[in-house]
Amino acid sequence: MRDTDGVLFDYGRTLVTFTPYPKDELLAVIREFRPRIEAVLGVPAPEAESILHEVLQPLEAYVSSETEDEVDYVDVYRDTWHGAGLKLPDDLLHQILDSEQKVWDRAVRVDPDTPIVLAALRKLGLRLGICSNAPFPPAMMRRQMESNGIAPMVDAIVFSSEVGKRKPSPELYRAALDALRTSPERTLFVGDRVREDYEGPRAAGMRAVIVTAHAEDAPPDGIPSINRLAELPHLLRPARARRV
Question: Residues 233, 215: contact at Cβ < 8 Å?
């Protein structure tokens, strides 16, 4: 792993995990907005549980979508509310979405190895970036990374919502490499999924390694992997330094 100038990381299940689906907190958001929803509609709004089931939970499918074309989440969000018979104005929808995303901000759990490893890689003189499939408005995602302390520890952050393409689309990797200002052959990609974080980066000319600590599926035999992020600096340290 020598001759490396930069490291690109996946975000979810690599640098962070999430608490179980925060149903109670999301219901609280819906209940907070129900009076305003009723005022706009002029009729009683559905119960919070119904809105959660008919609107918010179906939107989860877009988070883990395997298509390479990213959706415009704001449009999808609006269409899902409207499809449930709740034709709300865009400004109110934005406020609901923003409050909902703040719930997810609080649900993030930074892997204990993350700050230690990012600091260690910085000491090695490496440029660090994040390349993530995330359909949500970039400003909200950047707020999340500021609040959990990851944003200040990296040099570049690129989301699929900014590029319009999802991993393993080569366009997203190119955008991330451009933002990091490193070449593919001198960049290592680190993530938890084989298709998006190993095969895609390899096709784009990068080296790649899978971290299995929070991965949903174990990588097949033959794919480079480490058990936890704490092993990464050892892979990247020059061979001479490793012998000391």
Answer: no
Is pLDDT above 70 for 244?
A: no
Q: Hey, what long-range contacts does 39-46 have (CB within 8 A, 24 or more apart)?
A: 40/88, 40/89, 40/92, 41/86, 41/87, 41/88, 45/86, 46/84, 46/86
Two tokens, residue 54: 């008919």
Q: Percent of the chain beyond pLDDT 70?
A: 96
Q: How far apart are CA 225 and CA 217, in angstroms?
A: 12
Tokens coding 10: 């996946």
Q: Cis link prior to 44 (omega < 30° from 0)?
A: no
C-beta separation of 10 from 232 below 8 A: no
pLDDT category at 237 given cuts 50, 70, 90 is: confident
Angle between helices 23-41 and 90-107 (to 10 degrees): 170
Length of the chain: 244
Kind plus residue range of the DSSP H or E element containing 35: helix 23-41
pTM for this entry: 0.94
Q: How many CB atoms are closer than 10 A to CB 208?
A: 22
What is the separation, in whole angstroms, between the first and last Cα of the chain? 17
pLDDT at 55: 97
Q: Comparing C-alpha atoms, which of 208, 196, 12, 17 is closest to residue 108?
A: 17
- Please determine, for residue 243, whether its predicted confidence score (pLDDT) is greater than 60: no
